[in-house]
């Protein structure tokens, strides 16, 4: 959390991860070039650059799309999620280099605008074997550009989290376009079974991770607690909640996180105001509920971010009866203080 907008938000952890990203990208490019020179020495420099940065961007995109579901399945991946934006911008830069060199190599020798040439040099949209796959890559690059250029918290704040999130969900459209771009390109130019196989394998892995994570989430949404005569919902035994952690339940079609800390219990709405992160998957740090995605914090008893921050989430009343926790399913106004119950 920060009061002022900065072009790049770095701390020691982000610097470490950024160094890993840069090192990984350089090592991949070096390895790609060496292997190309060994197994395909007649490849010209422009083609090598196009293929090296293109394949790098595709691999990085698969890693980016895997981070989300992996973080939901295993909290150990959360530090990577925290640094995913920088990885996304780095991936866009690799895709941009690939696209620029491809346009220069294939579309600057004629007497028409290179961008216009991308869309008009091949109009055979009805053919699988000659489909203009470069158009698909160009459209994907545009989506990645808008995502990279709006990745800063300034745009998140001014566009609103809902609009910003919707814009960045376009990554799945970009992913589909890139898969078709790579598949058709490999099919038309080289008929590369290896490239097609890698793309198919990547798609299977990403799809499987998202389905498994969605199944895990469906268990939370499928929670059906018993109501007592006063309408309070029975949720769980207090011993089921670890210290300084939470358990998530669906209450009145909304996810609620019940935290245990310092011998007390408090309940808040599970969705972080920053990017919709799952607060219940975070933990208590310095007396504050800390979002596992980007570190936004809220006081457990009133759902308010500590001053001078202004974010607020809804709170819920709890009751303890023979170690069994009951929750009032009617949430209170965001930022409403609720006396924690002792446990």
Automatic annotation (TrEMBL):
Main location as per UniProt: membrane
Superkingdom, taxonomy of origin: Bacteria
TM regions (residue ranges): 20-39, 45-67, 87-108, 128-148, 169-187, 193-215
Keywords from the named record: 2Fe-2S, Iron, Iron-sulfur, Membrane, Metal-binding, Transmembrane, Transmembrane helix
The UniProt record lists the keyword Iron: yes
Compartments where found: Membrane
GO cellular component, one term: membrane
Cofactor: [2Fe-2S] cluster
All residue ranges annotated as the Rieske domain in the record: 232-327
Any one GO MF annotation of this record: 2 iron, 2 sulfur cluster binding
Bilayer topology annotation: Multi-pass membrane protein
Entry similarity comment: Belongs to the bacterial ring-hydroxylating dioxygenase ferredoxin component family.
Name of the protein described by the UniProt record: (2Fe-2S)-binding protein
Protein's organism: Flagellimonas aquimarina
């Amino acid at each position: 959390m920060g009061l002022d907008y900065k072009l790049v938000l770095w701390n020691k952890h982000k610097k470490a991860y950024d160094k890993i990203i840069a090192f990984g990208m350089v090592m991949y490019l070096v390895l790609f070039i060496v292997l190309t020179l060994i197994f395909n020495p007649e490849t010209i420099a422009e083609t090598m650059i196009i293929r090296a940065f293109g394949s790098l961007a595709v691999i990085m995109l698969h890693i980016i799309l895997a981070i989300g579901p992996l973080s939901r399945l295993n909290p150990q991946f959360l530090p990577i999620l925290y640094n995913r934006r920088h990885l996304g911008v780095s991936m866009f830069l690799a895709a941009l280099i690939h696209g620029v060199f491809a346009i220069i190599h294939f579309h600057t020798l004629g007497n028409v605008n290179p961008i216009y040439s991308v869309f008009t040099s091949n109009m055979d949209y009805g053919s699988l074997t000659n489909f203009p796959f470069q158009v698909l890559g160009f459209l994907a690059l545009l989506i990645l550009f808008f995502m990279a250029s709006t990745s800063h918290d300034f745009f998140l704040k001014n566009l609103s989290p809902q609009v910003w999130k919707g814009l960045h969900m376009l990554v799945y459209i970009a992913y589909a376009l890139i898969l078709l771009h790579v598949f058709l390109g490999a099919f038309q130019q080289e008929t590369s079974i290896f490239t097609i196989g890698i793309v198919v394998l990547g798609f299977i892995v990403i799809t499987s991770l998202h389905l498994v994570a969605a199944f895990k989430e469906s268990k939370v949404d499928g929670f059906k607690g018993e109501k007592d005569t006063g309408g309070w919902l029975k949720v769980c035994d207090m011993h089921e909640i670890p210290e300084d952690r939470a358990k998530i339940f669906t209450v009145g079609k909304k996810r609620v996180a019940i935290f245990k800390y310092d011998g007390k219990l408090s309940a808040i709405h599970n969705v972080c105001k920053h990017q919709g992160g799952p607060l219940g998957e975070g933990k208590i740090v310095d007396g504050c509920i800390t979002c596992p995605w980007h570190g936004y914090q809220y006081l457990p008893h009133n759902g308010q971010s500590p001053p001078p921050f202004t974010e607020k989430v809804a709170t819920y009343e709890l009751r303890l009866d023979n170690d069994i926790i009951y929750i009032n399913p009617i949430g209170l106004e965001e930022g409403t203080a609720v006396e924690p119950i002792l446990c």
